[in-house]
Amino acid sequence: MMLAGWGRYPALDCRLERLRRREDLSGLLHRSTTLIARGNGRSYGDAALNPELTLSMRAMDRMRAFDAVTGRLDCEAGVLLADLLETFVPRGWFPPVVPGTRLVTVGGMIAADVHGKNHHRDGTFGAHVESLTLAGADGAIRECSREENADLFRATLGGMGLTGVILSARFRLRPVETAFVMAETRAARDLDETMALFEASRDWPHSVAWIDCLARGAGLGRAVMTRGAFMERGALPPGLASNPLRPAPAGKLRVPADAPSALLNRVSIGLFNALCYRRGRRRARAGARPIHFDRFFFPLDRIEAWNRLYGRRGFVQYQCVLPKGDSAAGVAALLERAAASGQGSFLGVLKLFGPAGEGLMSFPMEGYTLALDFPVRSGAAALLDGLDEITHRHGGRVYLAKDARCAPERLREGYPRLGAFEAVRDEAVGAPPRFASELSRRLAL
Amino acid sequence: MNGGIETALVIGATSDIGRAIAHALAEDGCVLQLAARDPARLERETRDLRVRTRGAVTAHRCDVLDEDGGVSLLDTLDPLPDVAVCVVGRLGDQAKSQRDGAAAERVMRTNYVGPALLMGALAERFERRGGGVLVGISSVAGERGRASNYVYGSAKAGFTAFLSGLRGRLAASGAHVVTVKPGFVRTRMTDGMDLPARLTATPEEVAAAVVAAIHRPRDVIYVRRVWRPIMFVLRAVPERVFKRMSRL
Ligand SMILES: Cc1cc2nc3c(=O)[nH]c(=O)nc-3n(C[C@H](O)[C@H](O)[C@H](O)COP(=O)(O)OP(=O)(O)OC[C@H]3O[C@@H](n4cnc5c(N)ncnc54)[C@H](O)[C@@H]3O)c2cc1C
Ligand SMILES: NC(=O)c1ccc[n+]([C@@H]2O[C@H](COP(=O)([O-])OP(=O)(O)OC[C@H]3O[C@@H](n4cnc5c(N)ncnc54)[C@H](OP(=O)(O)O)[C@@H]3O)[C@@H](O)[C@H]2O)c1
Which residues from chain A sit within 8 angstroms of residue B52, using beta carbons? Predict the structure, then answer.
């Protein structure tokens, strides 16, 4: 069947099978030379696609044990983050790291070693994983942790499914007193101000900036930053105090069908960005206010199937990170280049990462990460290659969970521990590698 | 809050539909008794249910192909449940059932003999106690024998008729019988089949319909509901015509 990632580009005809129990895996391994695990398909590009065999992990969704004293959860890899939140927030527990959508699996969070708005304080999701069980090419199941099979553990965090199939994992949830975040909005008039705001927000557990990607000249890099911290029970206003751990209010918008891609043109995107910026300034004046974690962390989840906004041909998200010292110049060059192209990114997100973690192929490193969306249309490829060049010149790298088109050389330059990764993977999996995706084929991983 | 229903038994709890029903009943506040033929796989489900709902769950072994039809399960239940749901079934392979009598018998016993004897034995106790709800998962496939799956269909037809008779018998006792007729459901049983989206339910939809039918006792429910008019029409087609269309 035709399968794609969240960007709907590329779409490939893949044989899709569901893994229902771990005993079934060795049979599937016998029936195919290569395969890749797939979580909930929220990576944007071709990371979870293999025409020969794509193995859906969504049916591996049992929770195994929970310790209500320490918050330690043991669950299968196909459990959705949304499920975790629904189960544990009402009991006062929250995952240590969450990405910008709750529709991802635990396996996907580990394989991409996802980061959240709190990366500068808490690192990636992988940093909180205590151990995981991994099925290898021979079907044998290995327990991996910092003590046992430590190399394989480090290769699997951010390893994009190439070291094997993650069957389950253990990690600790954190206590929260309420489901609300005290959030504050700040507007910054240019890139210097935006970066200064990040520096000044180091003590906030969560921070992220939406960046106006069409502004140029003096306003280049103008942004609206949101920062926040989970609230304590006593700090809640009376209206919320009666049910501090309440679930998110319902209500969903839906993008009805494939939007004509002409809808996204210079004018409409410019208008949208200008509106967001102005709204941000208004909010900034209003001061801090409590908002539900669901709105704070997952604003896009309220618009179902928003990926259709970009039209039938899909879109590409470009996300890179630049070392801190090079960030100011590099981010300015990237924004300038994107704005000049007229390709118009609907969404631009900027965030300051903390130091890199232990995952050999993990994306984050200390510095700024920028994410931009571009509809797939003529001219996009040249622009993206141009962005790659800037990223490379500034010593940065792109995020594999978003990638659909980066060239192999660029990847090698960006990930200095790639050689170490391949050595561990080859030792564990054998050659030629059994766990392969369209992404690993394209990037010659 | 759930009308005095405290304990619920789900037989076939390692199926997708059984699991969904168990979770829905736990959400509803029931203490659960889960039964299945494979203890190791059942353990996976009981743990999941415990973590997710913090509810009380006990595990019970039951294989309807056992000598006693699995009825010794009843001796392991304490207390006798207020609700018992039987999800046990087996689609089998029609072509194989045609060639191989033993295979056909397995399908018949799994869909009819086993579930019917279990429901019958539970009915005895429910009648004695004077209350309770029995829920049997049958199928629209039991409405009419089609060339493409009549071995399965006929066994489901038997189960449907059994439940119907049981309902009449128990009517005076205060115990109630619900027959559930799913159309297509997206489960392990139908993995890889190309099913029409509008006619295909999720296991969660079946579970929600079952819980609703327990609370506001219903006799026969179809999931999805469009199957009721579809089957009404299908039953009316003359055999002469049906004979030709039933290879579908
Ligand atoms: C709206 C939106 C916002 C996002 N925000 C962020 C963000 O803030 N930070 C961030 O880091 N990411 C973000 N992402 C990306 C997303 O978190 C990652 O792509 C994540 O990996 C998706 O998880 P998934 O379960 O959908 O996995 P898939 O997309 O299905 O797979 C992703 C990768 O994980 C591998 N994989 C999945 N399951 C397993 C398994 N059981 N065993 C082995 N390998 C496996 C696949 O092979 C593939 O390489 C966002 C995505 C969207 C759509
Ligand atoms: N899926 C559909 O489209 C559909 C449509 C109409 C009706 N139904 C009915 O819905 C019910 C559940 O089906 P499903 O779709 O969830 O598929 P399923 O997973 O195949 O369910 C069958 C269940 O019956 C159990 N079982 C089989 N043989 C048994 C035995 N000898 N003793 C005890 N238990 C036994 C299975 O146990 P194991 O887990 O150990 O295998 C499994 O739990 C079945 O009765 C089926 O006929 C399904």
Answer: 63, 87
